[in-house]
Each structure stands twice: as C-alpha cells, then as structure tokens.
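Entry 14. Structure prediction run on the chain below.
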Amino acid sequence: MMNFDVYNISEEYSNVRLDKWIKIVYSSFRQNDIEIALRKKKIKVNEKKIKSNHRIQINDQISISIEYRNLKKEKEYHFDINSKKEIDEMIIFQDDEILILNKPSGIAVQGGTKIKKSIDTLLRSSFKSVKTRLVHRLDKDTSGILIIALNRQIADHMSYLFREKKIIKNYWALNVGKLKKGKGVINKKIKKKNSKTYDNALTEYNNYMIINNNLNFLIFKPITGRNHQIRIHSKELGIPILGDKRYGNLEDSEKLHLHSRSVEFYHPNGSKMFFEAELPEHMKEKWKKYDLPYEVNI
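Output returned:
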C-alpha cells in the first residue's frame, strides 16, 4: 500500500495546470516524471487518475506518493552570493518560519520555460539549508508584498489562511478614467484560462483621491484571489490601471502602476502581523509629481 503526501489547493492556485503546480512543489520533477507518475497513479487528484493538463481547483486534494517522491532528488541549486544580495534587498521581515519580501516590478514569481530569472530561483540560490515555499503569487509587473513560507507546516498554515480569506491585502493603484470618489464593490465573475467556465470574483475598492480629470488613486482589497483580478475588475469599472497594456491602453509606455502595499494576518504563534511595502520608483515619481499621500485612512 502506497503512502501519500496530501496537498489541499488554495484559491491562489485555482485553475493552474496540474503539471505546473507539481513543478512548483517539486522542482526536480521533469515533465516525463510527471506523466509516468500520473499513469501509475502515484500522483492523483481527489483520489482519481488524471491527466497532466488538468486544471486544479480550490479545495482539490492532490496526493503524491512518498515513495516516488523520495526517488527524485531535489534539484540542486548552488548558493549564489548575487542572488542572496538581490533577495536581501527585498526583505521586509524574516523569522524562522516566514519571509516577507517587497517584490520589484518586472520579475516573475515563478520560473518557466521562457523565464530564466524568478523570485523562486533567486530564493533557491539564497538559502543553503532551507527550502522556501511560495504560498501565493503576484503578476510579473505587479510589485509589493510577497509571503514566503520557510517550512512545509507554515506553507500549509498560510494556504489555509488564504483559503479561508483570513489574510487582508491592500493594493494601491493609479487608474485612468473617470470615477466618482468613494467606496464600492466589484462582484464580477472572471473567465478561467482556457475554459468556458467562470470563477466568482469579489473586489472591494476605494477611489481615495481624484487626481485630475483622467487619473485616480485607488485602494483595492481583493476578497477572492483570481488571476489578474484587480486588473480585470479595473477594466470592468472603465478605469484600467495606468501602464496596463493587456487590459488597458496597448500603446501605454508607462510601467504598471499596481502595488501590493500591505498585508495583515495572524502568525501561527498567535501574534498579529502587519507589513507595508515601499512603493517602486516609477510609482514614487507619480506620488511626488501629484503630491499624493503615503499615509491613508481607509
């Protein structure tokens, strides 16, 4: 009888391909390894045999054979002082269990076939004896707060907090268009990638300041965690984010002005945690130009 590691999928990884998720958790698994394991039922989803292109959903249970996992040595990443320096410059907080980074704009969180540099690969080259674990994602061009777990138990705990919506995140953005000042809620489903179905998506927003006739300072609080949620919901409001070439102006030469400003949650030890991430340089320039506040009352 095979013994399995069992993972519960959080909202952050909803609609991600199974093979991509496996490579995130076990970076040493190659595509061929995954295909063989799936055929032999050494990897199952909800106790069922499944294909590698299956898109996992929130609360799915992925079972991976411990015996098979142990046959695959973890991919070796050599310690690199330059990678460590890059990560050190991003660190907001670190203890024995959690690492909080201020991710720069323009760097992907996870690697891929066309992505040579990512937060994940930098982390693996920065820690000699700790296996870092991503517990949520940010878009490549979105900057700000990124939570990293430093052991499996904390990764499970943080995934639980995300799943139960017990992590409060606030994003700052500059949005182009006209919108009245004040608070509102966007309750608009988002189409799943490569699918005809839709996920529920809920975002609270506060148009904190109308800067001029065509620019606004908005604060977003995503309740759900769909891919590109804030960017898509901004488009639905008719005020795409400045610099969003995908959901806004294709000819916009600006960088994306979307920043994960703060996060609040309870540490496994019971203490309340709150962190803020400094704005990236291209957003600081706009804050200076328009004399925007860094202290807000929301």
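The chain has a mean pLDDT of 89.
Filed with the rest of this week's runs.
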